[in-house]
Amino acid sequence: MTAIRVKGFKIFKDRHGKMRCYHRKTLTPVDLVKAPLGSAEFFAVCAAISAKLAKEVEAKPGTLGMLIRKYRASPAFLDLAPRTRADYQRVFDYLKAIDDTALTRFDPPTVARIRDKAGSKGHRFGNYVRQVLSLLFAWGAERGFTSSNPAASVKGLKRPKSLADANRPWTDEERAAILGGATPELRAILALMAYTGLGPKDAVSLPRSAFRDGEIATRRTKTGEPVFWPAPALLRAELAAMPHHDAITLCASSTGRPWSQDGLQSSFQRLKHRLEDTQAIGTGLTLYGLRHTVAVILRETGADERTIADALGQKTIEMARHYAKGADLKPKMRGVVAQFDAEMNRRGTKSVKPHAEKRQTQSNGDGSR
Q1: pLDDT (mean) for 197-203
Q2: Nearest to residue 309, comparing CAs of 324, 290, 294?
Q3: Would you state the pLDDT for residue 79?
C-alpha cells in the first residue's frame, strides 16, 4: 500500500490497527470514514483545514486572535499533553467569535461576562473558559503582549446546588455488587481501577511491563506524572484469576485484545443498568468515580492531601519537588497501600470471590469489540 503524506498532517495507525489523521498544529481530526485516506474527499478536507489555518494566521496585531496564535505556536502550548492541547483548543474555538477584539478592551468585567456566557453551557465550561483566558493573558503579560492579566481576579462560577455529584464515590456494597456481577474480563479491569485509582484511559492502556514484582509503575496519560502503586493483595488475586490473554496490555477484553475506552464503557453501562434495575446499586455510578473512591478511602484511613495527590499522580508544584528528590515516593507509597489493603479487607471485599463459575457462563457485558 502506497504511503500517503500530506504536509502539516499526521497520518498513522493506532494501537488497534485503525488509521488516524489529524492536523498537527490545531489537532483537527480528519474523518477517514467520510473522507477515506487517499481519496479526493480526503485531500479536499486537508486543503480546507490548511486554508482555514492560513487565514487564521492573518489575525490582527494586538487582538485576542493574535495572542491565541502566538501562544499556540509556543513551547508552552506545544509541550502540553495531547489531551490538554485538545481541551484548550475547544476553548479557543469557542472564543473565535471575538478574535478581533483588541487586547486593551479586556478587563475583569469583560472576562466575567465571557465566563457567564460560557457558563450557559454548564458551570464547568464557564470556569474552564475563565481558566484558559487567565493562563493565556498571564503568558501574554510575561512577553509584553498585554499589560496585565484581566482574568486573574475573576472568580469561578459556583456549582449549582441542584446538580448531582459528578463521579461520586462508590459504596462498599456497590463495588461488591459490580465486581460480583461482572464477567471475568470486565471484573479484572474494574478491580484494577478500584484498587489503584487509575482512571479508565490509564487502565485500558496500562502495559504488562508496568506491573512487576507485584507493583505498578506508570505515568498518567493526561499529565505525564509518575504513579507508583504496590498492588494490594485483593488486586493481585484478581489479576491472577483473570483469563489468559496475549495482549500487550495488562487487561484485555473477551476477544483477547486490549480494551478500548468505548468498549469498556459499553460493557460497564450494560452491567450497571442491569444492577440498577434490581436496585443492587444506586444511580449515578461512573468509571471515573472509582478514582474518587480510592481518594475517599485513603482519606478515611488518615492519609493527608499531599499523600493522596502522590497516590493519584496529581500534578502540583509540591509533587514536582517531591519527585525531584528521586527515591522518597516508593517507601512512602508501600506503607500507604498497606493501610489501603488492610482497610479493603476489613470492609469485607473478600466476600466477593474472584471469578465465580456462574459468571463465566454469562454472555452479556463481556466487553467484546
Answers
A1: 93
A2: 294
A3: 86
